[in-house]
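Task: encode each sequence below as structure tokens.

Item 1
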Amino acid sequence: MALRFDAGEVITAMVTPFNRKREIDYNKSEELAGNLINNGSDTILVAGTTGEGPTLTHEEEFELLSSVKRAVANRAKIIMNAGSNSTQTAIMAAKWAQKEEVDAILSVVPYYNKPSQQGMIEHFSAVAECTTLPIILYNIPGRTGVNMLPETVAHLAEKYQNIVGVKQSCSDMDAVTEMKLLCPEDFTIYSGDDSLTLPMMALGARGVISVASHIFGSEIKSMIRNYKTGEFLAALNMHKKLYPAFKKLFMAPNPVPVKAVLAHKGLIEEYVRRPLTELSDKDKADLIKVIEKVRKN
């Protein structure tokens, strides 16, 4: 079955490297994007939550996208975060992303406003009608304060051919099943939580929009491939191996922990922008201990 849009199995929601002054380090951005592509990532998501998109200016987003494009050089797809709790802002972001010729956009359920399901339909309809880019919906009730129901996803997927998939960041497995029952067959579901990748794939998900792939990209790719080729025990064993890291990488608000690990590896500096704060030395040591133990297993 041909998909409406195929971003592959492992999409990495890339962190945005900052220097000591908390300015974007564009050289590190290029190096990191290249490293991700070489280690299991099929697609890079730019300026999402993990990329601290809410703290970036439009000028920074433009330069960041340019740096990732240079690094990717057609070796992987690029998805741009273009969501907002303002419908007009989301429309402008989608139009800008299309002008910049990204491969697709990620559009989140409007946060803070707590819209009804009809409000979500009208919001995403306006976005879908303003662009020809593929759109991946983003359902993350823990951050938005409201849950997008499977019926709403299905309505949008049926109505708009360019609404191609959903990033599902909640642990309701029944909702995944309901989306598979209600949505067109060429509509794609991605897990939005690393620890839920394998369970969601058992229900028909395509793969994951991942944070842990910064560290364990090849292992996550292997887990997915093993599952898809019928090596279920191997996939389960990899899931079990990575599970402590999946959970520990969310010991503090994302992307604080993953930046600490990347800094420990010498790939970036660990700085985050306020209102986020870096890990304490104690928490950092605890995190690195778990990550290194997982790596050695």
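Item 2
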Amino acid sequence: MKRIVAALSLAALSACAPADQVQRLDSQAGATAPVTAYRPGTPDPLPAGRSNAEMVRDFLELGFAMESGRPIGQFSRFEGPVRVAVLGTAPGQATSDLDRLIARLRAEAGIDIARTNAPSADENAITVEFLPRRQMQAVVPSAACFVVPNVDSWDAFVANRRSPLIDWTQVVQRHRAAVFVPSDTTPQEVRDCLHEEIGQALGPLNDLFRLSDSIFNDDNFQTTLTGFDMLLLRVWNAPDLAPGMTRDQVAARLPTLFNRLNPAGRRHDGVDAGITPRAWQQAIEQALSSDGGLTRRRAGAARALSLARAQGWQDNRLALSLMLSARLAPRDQGEAALDQLLTAAQLYRAAPGGEVHAAHIDMHLAVQALANGQTDAVLELTGRALPVAMRSENAAFVASLAFIRAEALTLQGRDAEAQRLRLDSMAAARYGFGSEAAVRARMDEIAQIGSAAQRLARL
């Protein structure tokens, strides 16, 4: 379900030979200096930008279907306080990231939620268990992380994995849910899993590609719960709703609820996005898949773009189709791909939350500008994208942008500024990429692009 975005948004950087910039930076910082932890600062999520009429439609589509398309016949949620317990040893910064998430859920979504060491039998509880990825994927091969109802441990899940006990469509009142997260991945992926899976344990179980401003979206550009998500969770857990309600009963109460909790959304702009055909979603999934090979991915992107145009869409669904088509295009179609990227960026900037997607396109364009020695363009593009990356707390994105920017500064002869920027970005890089080797590889990918630009300039 998760981690598509790393392959999608950073694919412009091709693999290169390793060098030693990480070691040089560490030596500049001082051999005995402690490794700085990534600290994103006070949460500043992108606010909900849709009208309440749109939010009602989104709530219903998210709330009464599974990702597979299976309908959910009744509204379900926890009733009363929820406690969160951690099983096993939490890796890295996972505990502090979990505490930060819980604090946000209390403050922004109004949920009575707190951590506990051992929930009692009569308490609502979400257990978070960290396991090796290989162990998880031996049972659920396609999942990077996931949430299951009515169990509180991995052993209980495995024992009941073919039982209706863990069928979300049969749940009315939630009492227990278990979140399973890989223990041997990057700190950022762990954090992202906590946000999405705990968000689903407390709210909707569906993901919609058309929601550019939500973590409940399998394009995975939004890596932490957004303002849209927190508003949706606040409404989901409002006393006006109750477990067991039908879709029609929930729909009747939502307009009043959203108008009360989101006064800024009391307007009549926005259009009905309509139903997203399953064929388009399958084509997008094929284009994003890492298993089908480049030819199959290109075919998926082409089909998605054809379907999006046939639907007459002018929203982020067309933008995603254009971007994937551009990113997967053969080298001899570079001009057409550039036009598609620019059109996608324009569409994203008009969509709620789409500035994050547009910033990823800016990064791709910055890499191309760096390869051509257009350093002023690199600085402009990365300067525009960096505040968005920082606000969305995507550390891998922040570090990549900073490394690209630093390489442009180096090409301009501003070596001290470049080294300072690389050094200041190391905490985000370690958090986002997970290991010194991965940080080194990312820096060297970018450095080699800069070196190639220098050689080109000398010809």
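Check on item 2: The CA atoms of residues 3 and 47 lie 23 Å apart. Confidence is low (pLDDT under 50) at residues 1-20, 29-33.
End of task.
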